[in-house]
Amino acid sequence: MFASLAGRSVIVTGASKGIGRGMAKRFAEAGCRVIVVARSGEGAKLVAEDIAVAGGRAIPVAADVSTEEGVAAMAAAATEHFGGIDILCANAGVFTAARIAEMSVGEFDDLMGINLRGTFLSVRACLPELTRTGRGRVIVTSSITGPVTGMAGWSHYGASKAGQLGFVRSAALELAAAGTTINAILPGNIVTEGLVALGSDYLASMAASVPLKRLGSVEDIANAALFFASDEAAFITGQTLIVDGGQVLPESLAGME
């Protein structure tokens, strides 16, 4: 049996929708006290209210993780309301399509600011409280796109997600002395608002490329995060876990026949 995480304080960034919302709700179900962080204060409030209705405890915080002020505010809220930070889910991220020839420097910088700099800033802001407990956990939401696969039009996104893994591996060495672990989850195609917006044809083609013949759910990723946060995962750090239904395994669709 897994030890209980009940009572632990967890920050989830990018938690107003998609994978982040799934993580926030799943940790609340496990008895954690959740700081729901999103750029949209209203979005964060709605998720926190959903958690409260289900019997959990959550505080909404409007913060932009690409800024030092934003991450300082979320760390301060966790300390003020819940007495510290046990777990950080650095999940906030954006994915916007732009081919290299047409991509502006601003588009590149904006995406990197949230996906990569936001990961660094979030970890740095939470580090004093994470390391104080002796059992701190950091879970980074990366992607199979960049570290393992590629998609035309997503070079900046892929670069940011690959960059997160370089950060995780070196950060693991710095955090280890305090008993704090940091690991990354690499989702495949997960059913979220962003994926649905790409259209039914895209969803069908992606499902066809997955050996398990379905797209992933936010719960699939949230459960992986819950494992990395557990006491049972205390000896795992600097690692990556692909959660994609086997999507990266076949060389081609013919490889699944």
How many domains? The number is: 1
CATH topology: Rossmann fold
Q: Give me the Rg, rounded.
A: 18 Å
Given the C-alpha coordinates, what overall shape results?
globular
Write down the secondary-structure element order.
EHEHEHEHEHEHHHE
CATH-level-2 architecture: 3-Layer(aba) Sandwich
Beta-strand percentage?
5-15%
Instruction: Provide a count of the helices.
Output: 8
Give the low-confidence spans. Answer: none
CATH class: Alpha Beta
Helix content: 40-55%
Distance linking N and C termini:
38 Å
Notes on the protein architecture:
The chain is an alpha/beta fold and 257 residues long. It has a single domain (9-243), classed as Rossmann fold, CATH 3.40.50. The chain has helices spanning 18-29, 41-53, 68-82, 105-133, 155-175, 193-196, 200-208, 218-229, and strands at residues 9-12, 33-38, 57-62, 87-90, 137-141, 181-187, 240-243. Strand 5, helix 5 and strand 6 (181-187) form a beta-alpha-beta unit. Helix 3 (68-82) runs parallel beside helix 4 and helix 4 (105-133) runs parallel beside helix 5. It is globular and about 50 Å long. 46% of the residues are buried. The model has no long low-confidence stretch (mean pLDDT 95).
